[in-house]
Amino acid sequence: MSLHRIPRLIALATLLAMPCVAQSTQATQNRYQREAVDADVALHNVHFGTGETLNTLRLHYKTLGKPHRNAAGKIDNAVLILHGTGDRSDSMLTSIFADPLFGPGDPLDITRYYVIFPDDIGHGQSSKPSDGLHARFPHYDYDDMVQTQHAMLTEELGIDHLRLILGVSMGGMQTFVWGETYPGFADALMPLTCLPVPLAGRNRMMRYAAMQAIRTDPAYNNGEYKTQPPSIHTANTILLVTGTSPLVLQGIAPTRKQAEAYVDQTVAQRDANTDANNFLYYIDSSRNYDASQHLDRITVPITWVNTADDFINPPELRIAEHYAPQLKQGKFILLPISPETRGHSTNMLASIWRPYLVDLMRHSQPAH
């Protein structure tokens, strides 16, 4: 297991804060958004870890590239990319994420790889509380998400092996779960901006505070509201700054008026795209996450990347340094604070961590 820090990176264009919990908004479509193919699968009689069931679970996903079959007829070029909390597959097709990864000669060149971007349970166009069950929707967690992703791949898409699993934030934590639950299913793993430990301390506090703001709001009405409860504004405000860094926010709002305008504009945009039940479910889906107990089950090369200005996973806790040595074929990278990093949202700036993906793909090349 090795630990690395990288030098300052070449300056990137200014990127406004992209929080851990966000709905993707696209002003114009880039080539990858235009080329992505949308599809749905239906999983039946789905059992959740809580004991709850759902007769039919719809999982939406997008793909880029084409599946390739080896001599045995097996798909051998599939890559799974997992989004963050409250987000959706669309976010992984934005230019800042897609352009450094999927073009000719890039590490996930879509002329070579078949890239799959699921909308997780409770997110995007997949089944979620706002579809009609509201607070009667099954209380899913990360294990449920990974198990249904696995079912989608194996039962519906005919994929029994992946070249790579890459995930950001919640998707990074799911990458750890994948490595432990299905050892060797992927040739390589790349979790970004996450930790393998239970969510506690400040991380859980801010999530709990946001959820309680909604739960204790009389307008929430046990999930049977007709219009969004006002407390969704409070919840979104609590989570406002989690996805970026003080250096960035100081730069984009150097005066009091600019800072206040930024809050007003950003929270209003989030409020317009947030459903209270969906919010409660996807925030709470991390409640029993703990990948720290079985890191020894991860047998394939894994490159784990965090950033020093991550408010959600602050490096001063030194959690990564404690657990990284337990990864048999692992590398942990801590990106230093710089004008180029964006706190937790650095996970969406693929140019920053692309060199480590190139290295991971090279050193995890399967034997033929």
TrEMBL record:
<dbReference type="Pfam" id="PF00561">
    <property type="entry name" value="Abhydrolase_1"/>
</dbReference>
<dbReference type="GO" id="GO:0004414">
    <property type="term" value="F:homoserine O-acetyltransferase activity"/>
</dbReference>
<dbReference type="GO" id="GO:0009086">
    <property type="term" value="P:methionine biosynthetic process"/>
</dbReference>
<dbReference type="InterPro" id="IPR000073">
    <property type="entry name" value="AB_hydrolase_1"/>
</dbReference>
<keyword id="KW-0808">Transferase</keyword>
<feature type="active site">
    <location>
        <position position="310"/>
    </location>
</feature>
<feature type="active site">
    <location>
        <position position="344"/>
    </location>
</feature>
<protein>
    <submittedName>
        <fullName>Homoserine O-acetyltransferase</fullName>
    </submittedName>
</protein>
<dbReference type="InterPro" id="IPR008220">
    <property type="entry name" value="HAT_MetX-like"/>
</dbReference>
<keyword id="KW-0732">Signal</keyword>
<feature type="signal peptide">
    <location>
        <begin position="1"/>
        <end position="22"/>
    </location>
</feature>
<feature type="active site" description="Nucleophile">
    <location>
        <position position="169"/>
    </location>
</feature>
<dbReference type="GO" id="GO:0009092">
    <property type="term" value="P:homoserine metabolic process"/>
</dbReference>
<dbReference type="InterPro" id="IPR029058">
    <property type="entry name" value="AB_hydrolase_fold"/>
</dbReference>
<feature type="domain" description="AB hydrolase-1">
    <location>
        <begin position="77"/>
        <end position="226"/>
    </location>
</feature>
